[in-house]
């Protein structure tokens, strides 16, 4: 008990971060709780880090986390557009459109609404729920142009989505060559990928329309080429299908080309799992998420975590609330 102030400050970090940031990177890893496997999700950027443990890592779960503590479901233009793009039946889409601007207080109220529409197909219910959660995000101030950079895990593919180049190249690196020619092809292609990556990094500093066109053409040249290794060719074409997400930086030079920040932040969670195994009580789980978030954010804001804890426990309040400091840091970096 007595940790409510810390929990509230942690939740405020996510609300401020999602409302003011141009992008966040995301990742997840295993986290056991009460002897059962679960997951901890990281959301953050160079200014803040936020962790939350859950039983699953579905897209519904991720969108629920992005609500930053809110529990409502919203049918609005953004929700309906998402449902249509995901292939929701026009019968149910039209039925939901009749309730545009409707808000449902919690999961129970939303599920009752879907039951009333006769929506029994699990896939349709998932699509509708994802859309309603997305509608809730827009209602609660999540930046409309927020970019989410991930490692291509399906649950993170929402809103404006970008992909990590390190994870994409890793697929090529892990290929097993069957002969010397295959080995040479893999080495050459990896060199071309990293050369393109280096030029994309330079583009971030000096973006021009001409370089944008050149880099887009080079991407096609690298990922549509034919080699003497059929498996490599199929992989390159699969990566090419993610062209818009891998080249998001051409439209948004401020976004990162990788998720290294999330990988680095979540490493502490991996260490905790290996050492302690997991949490037993709900309070223990909540405290693990809260203090991991506050500690990592203090580090990013150049605040001593020890001094922060001393300040909060003594109620001296010399250190401003972290969400306020986060807002100032983002404003200065804009």
TrEMBL record:
<dbReference type="InterPro" id="IPR004291">
    <property type="entry name" value="Transposase_IS66_central"/>
</dbReference>
<dbReference type="Pfam" id="PF03050">
    <property type="entry name" value="DDE_Tnp_IS66"/>
</dbReference>
<protein>
    <submittedName>
        <fullName>Mobile element protein</fullName>
    </submittedName>
</protein>
<feature type="domain" description="Transposase IS66 central">
    <location>
        <begin position="159"/>
        <end position="284"/>
    </location>
</feature>
<dbReference type="InterPro" id="IPR052344">
    <property type="entry name" value="Transposase-related"/>
</dbReference>
């Amino acid at each position: 008990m007595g940790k409510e102030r810390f929990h509230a400050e942690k939740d405020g970090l996510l609300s401020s971060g999602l409302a003011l940031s141009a992008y966040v990177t995301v990742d997840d890893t295993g986290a056991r709780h009460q002897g059962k496997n679960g997951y901890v999700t990281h959301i953050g950027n160079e200014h803040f880090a936020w962790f939350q443990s859950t039983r699953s890592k579905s897209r519904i779960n991720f969108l629920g986390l992005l609500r930053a503590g809110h529990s409502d479901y919203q049918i609005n233009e953004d929700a309906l557009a998402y449902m249509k793009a995901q292939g929701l039946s026009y019968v149910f889409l039209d039925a939901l459109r009749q309730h545009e601007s409707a808000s449902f207080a919690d999961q129970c109220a939303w599920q009752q609404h879907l039951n009333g529409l006769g929506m029994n197909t699990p896939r349709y219910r998932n699509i509708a729920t994802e859309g309603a959660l997305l509608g809730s995000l827009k209602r609660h101030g999540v930046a409309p142009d927020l970019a989410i950079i991930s490692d291509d895990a399906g649950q993170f593919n929402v809103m404006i989505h970008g992909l990590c180049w390190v994870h994409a190249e890793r697929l090529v690196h892990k290929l097993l060559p069957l002969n010397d020619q295959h080995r040479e092809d893999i080495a050459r292609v990896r060199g071309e990928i990293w050369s393109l990556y280096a030029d994309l990094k330079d583009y971030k500093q000096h973006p021009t329309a001409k370089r944008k066109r050149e880099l887009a053409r080079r991407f096609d040249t690298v990922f549509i080429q034919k080699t003497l290794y059929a498996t490599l060719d199929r992989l390159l074409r699969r990566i090419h299908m993610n062209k818009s997400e891998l080249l998001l930086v051409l439209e948004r030079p401020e976004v990162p080309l990788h998720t290294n920040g999330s990988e680095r932040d979540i490493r502490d969670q991996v260490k905790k799992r290996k050492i302690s195994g997991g949490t037993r009580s709900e309070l223990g789980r909540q405290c693990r998420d809260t203090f991991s978030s506050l500690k990592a954010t203090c580090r990013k804001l150049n605040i001593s975590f020890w001094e922060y804890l001393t300040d909060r426990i003594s109620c001296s309040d010399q250190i401003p609330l972290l969400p306020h400091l986060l807002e100032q840091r983002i404003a200065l970096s804009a």
